[in-house]
Specification:
By secondary structure, this protein is α/β, with parallel strands linked by helices. The chain contains 11 helices and 14 strands. It has helices spanning 16-31, 47-60, 70-83, 95-99, 117-125, 140-155, 185-196, 214-218, 245-256, 262-281, 286-294, and strands at residues 3-9, 36-42, 63-65, 87-89, 105-107, 132-136, 160-163, 178-182, 204-207, 226-229, 297-300, 303-306, 320-325, 328-331. It has a 7-stranded mixed sheet with strand order 7-6-8-9-10-13-14, with helices on both faces. The chain has a 5-stranded parallel sheet with strand order 2-1-3-4-5, with helices on both faces. Helix 5 (117-125) runs parallel beside helix 6. The longest helix is centred in the last third of the chain and has 20 residues, at 262-281. The protein is globular and about 65 Å long.
Length: 336
């Protein structure tokens, strides 16, 4: 069965640095399969443009992949519900985005509320748990990540203080504090830079933005900063479905000249899952796709896939902790 996949991606605008990665990830995926054709439209990082693009793609394509960003994916879910179709979510990890459109949104991403878990478990495991200052950005995604971080930290016995956009960072005499920040890429870069320039900087820093290589080009000396993200090379199990991680990385590096960050891999994994479900169902009808996805448990190059059959939220996938060292970004195994 030949399938046409349509995707709205931010090739321009504020989300372009990640939309372009997702675009290349889908192109690499497409080159490794004979199952599908690919149609990409630029949503220009704008919800109104996205609305128009999705409606146009709906008439041309069998399967629809959503945009990058929680804000845009929130709109994509609403459009999918209005049109009576299903959108495959590779770019919006907001808790509400994953669960508010049952039957219309299938997500492959670890939800925002669980993003901080690997960092907090690492922090608790060191035996040194000074107060953790949690800084969230202006958007709903950052607030959801921060709320989840607070709840997980509390369960681990870590004291937290939460700050919003524009709030001042703590002034301490002994430097006994840690920092976790979750906002837009630019917000995280600014927060980390301000914190590390303080007379008493935090002992430990983790930022969502630090989970991608672009962070190392955006900040002076990222050494020692932790990041959390959806994927890092070697973090997943062998792929039961679709292209292997090794095969994808080789092809991506040949085209881009560098290894991908998680936006590229999660897009490729979502296309893999979507086409696999269509093949299993023998149909691209919304109800058939939803029923098949709800009963599927597998792994891709991105890691585990299993959704809540009632909501479509991702249950199987886990966020990954990374750390910036002298040689760049690497997966974190142990040690502070």
């Amino acid at each position: 069965m030949k399938i046409t996949i349509g995707a709205c991606l931010s090739l321009t605008g504020r989300h372009a640095r990640f939309g372009k990665q997702a675009h290349l990830g889908l192109q690499v995926w497409r080159s490794a399969t004979s199952q599908a054709d690919l149609v990409i439209e630029d949503d220009r990082s704008d919800a109104q443009v996205l609305d128009t693009c999705m409606r146009r793609l709906r008439d041309r394509c069998d399967l629809l992949l959503g945009p990058y960003s929680t804000h845009l994916m929130r709109r994509a879910g609403a459009v999918a519900a209005e049109l009576g179709c299903l959108v495959w979510n590779h770019g919006g990890a907001g808790d509400d985005v994953e669960s508010e459109r049952p039957g219309h949104v299938v997500s492959v991403l670890t939800p925002a509320g669980r993003y901080a878990e690997p960092f907090l478990r690492h922090l608790a495991g060191t035996g040194k748990t000074p107060p953790l200052w949690i800084v969230h950005g202006r958007g709903g995604f950052g607030r959801q990540v921060a709320a989840g971080a607070e709840a997980i930290a509390r369960s681990l016995g870590i004291e937290t203080i939460r700050l919003g956009p524009g709030d001042g960072l703590p002034v301490t005499e002994d430097g006994a504090w840690s920092l976790f920040c979750a906002g837009a890429f630019e917000e995280d870069v600014d927060t980390v830079a301000r914190a590390r320039a303080m007379p008493s900087p935090p002992d430990t820093v983790c930022a969502v933005a630090a989970g991608v290589r672009e962070f190392g080009r955006a900040i002076d000396d990222p050494h020692g900063v932790y990041g959390v993200g959806q994927w890092f090379p070697g973090s997943g199990r062998a792929a039961e479905t679709g292209i292997s991680e090794t095969g994808f990385l080789t092809a991506y590096q040949e085209q881009a000249g560098e290894l991908p960050d998680y936006p590229a891999v999660q897009a490729a994994a979502t296309a893999t899952i979507a086409t696999h479900c269509a093949t299993l169902a023998g149909s691209t009808a919304r109800a058939a796709l939803w029923s098949t996805a709800a009963g599927l448990e597998t792994t891709t190059l991105f890691g585990s896939f299993k959704i809540d059959p009632a909501t479509g939220s991702q249950l199987g996938h886990r966020a990954t902790l990374v750390r910036w060292g002298a040689d760049g970004l690497s997966g974190h195994a142990s040690g502070p």
